[in-house]
Structures are given as C-alpha cells and as structure tokens.
Amino acid sequence: MIKLIECPRDAMQGIPGFIDTAIKAAYINQLLEVGFDTIDFGSFVSPKAIPQMRDTAEVLDLLDFHDSKSKLLAIVANLRGAEEALSFPEIDFLGFPLSVSETFQQRNTHASIMEALKTVETIQNLCEVKGKKQVVYLSMGFGNPYGDPYSPELVAEFVEKLAQLQIETISLSDTIGIATPDLITQLFEVQIQAFPQIEFGAHLHSRRESIAEKVLAGLRAGCKRFDGALNGLGGCPMAKDDLVGNMATEVMIETLESEGYSLGLNKSELVEAMKLTHFVFNS
Question: Does the keyword Lyase apply (predicted)?
Fold first, then answer.
C-alpha cells in the first residue's frame, strides 16, 4: 500500500508573510477531506527560528476531523517541543530532523549530531509511554552543500543507530534537491533490504520536471511512502537561500496511478484543495 504524506507545514514554513491562523486551519481541514495517509500539519519549534509555525497549537484547535482517516504529524526539534506536541491527543506522529551533515544539524536544531541522537532516544522513550510514533527524517540524506562527509555507507551507519533505538519509520530526505534517480534507488534498495522492520519514506525536494523519475526510482527500490506538497510549494528555509520546492503531490499522484496504484483519494476534495492553495499562498 502506498502512503502519501501531505506536508502543508513544509509548504508554509519558509513563506515570509504570516498566513492567518484561520486560513491555515481551513486549508488543513480541506486536506483532511482528501484521504492522505498523514498530514504534516505544523511544528513545535522556536518561533524565532520558524515564525510561520508559531500558531501550530491554535491551528490544531481549529481542525475538524469529521470522518477523516488521515493522521497528524508535527515536527519537533528538541525535547521541549516534543513534550508540547505529546500533550495533544490529536497528534499521532512526532517528526524529528536528524541530519547526516553536522553543519546542517547545527543550523537546523542548534545541536550536534551526537546531541540530536540523544534527543531522538529521549523522544522515542516518551512516545512509547504516550502511545505515539516517532518519524526520523535523515536530512541531507543524499548529499550536502557544505563539504561535510557523505556516502551511502554513512547513511547506513545512521540507520543502524536508529534501528537500535527501535525507530520504526525513517524518511530519507533530499533537503536541497540533488538526489539522482540512481542514488535514490541505491539508497532505498540497500536500506529496505537491510532493515525490513523499518518503514522507509522519501522526503524529496525537486524541480517539477524531475518528480516522476524520482518517484519511479523510489518505487523500483521498494519505497511505498512519499512526502509531498500540492503545487510543489515550500522547501527548507534552513538549507540555503534559494529553496527547491517539495515534490508536487499532484504529479506524484499521476505518476503512481499510471503505475497502477489505487490511492483511495477523494478526487473532488483534491480539486478543492488545489484551488485553495492559490488563495492560501497568495493571501
């Protein structure tokens, strides 16, 4: 079964103008109607670092789940954020950004990789107590622009450490959009075979014209979990100045359906969500 993770949080977080809380909530409520497996809806991080996400708790209070099957994921960058996220019963997953690049780990969470791994372990213990799941994003998982060490073998070392911590979901993240189809296939194939107990996801950033080949590369390797954002909006504001957008969800849907996958989405609600993106991100 294919899992699509829709990421309005990633789409919104780098936009300089503050999006009104009610507008954010209305957009996420529409996404909840579509039938995505999970909505990456917000983050509990420093408002100084990511001011766009300072109202995540208020947005959550305005969400109306109806009969939505979608689960909620919130990003956290430290123990304080994790504890806040864990106080909300509506949140199913806590996402933590662990970087293969030391430079990016410092830029993104103001902590070393070693410190971040300790935080992952603490959050994992808290999640087990609270009945939640942690999703670890391996940022810069396909290379970095800083000259920090990188290799597929290094990625495997990180996955091994996370496996020892009983992490069940790891999303390999191409934070700056440099992954090639060959590297995507290689990384996922090796990790999926080596760690069958772990669900591996693809959080890739890409130019629109390269999305289909990247999805197909992941599929070839056995990846069944893909993150995206409608219209390919967003990118990581901590990575570098010029953002490479998220994988456009609508292109991923077209690619996956052309391969024969039935995604179980409400297409009429998807059309409405696509219309809303133009209002939300230009308001």
Answer: yes
Q: Which of 90, 77, 88, 86 is nearest to 43 (CA)?
A: 77
pLDDT in tens, 153-177: 999 999 999 999 999 999 999 988 8
Whole-number Å distance between alpha carbons of 187 and 46: 32
On whether the CB atoms of residues 71 and 37 are closer than 8 A, the answer is yes
Partnered with residue 205 across adjacent β-strands are: 246
Tens of pLDDT along 6-59?
999 999 998 889 999 999 999 999 999 999 999 999 999 999 999 999 999 999
Q: Name the nearest CA neighbour of 203 among 170, 231, 167.
A: 170
First to last CA, the chain: 36
What pTM value is reported for the model? 0.95
List the one residue out of 49, 139, 46 whose CA is nearest residue 100. 139
Residue 187: what residue type?
A: L
User: What is 93-149 written as a DSSP string?
Assistant: EEEEEEESSHHHHHHHHSS-HHHHHHHHHHHHHHHHHHT-EEEEEEETBTB-SS---
Compute the C-alpha angle 8/182/238, nearest 5°: 35
Question: What ranges do the domains of the chain cover?
Answer: 3-280
Q: Which CATH class is domain 3-280?
A: alpha beta
pLDDT surpasses 50 at 241: no
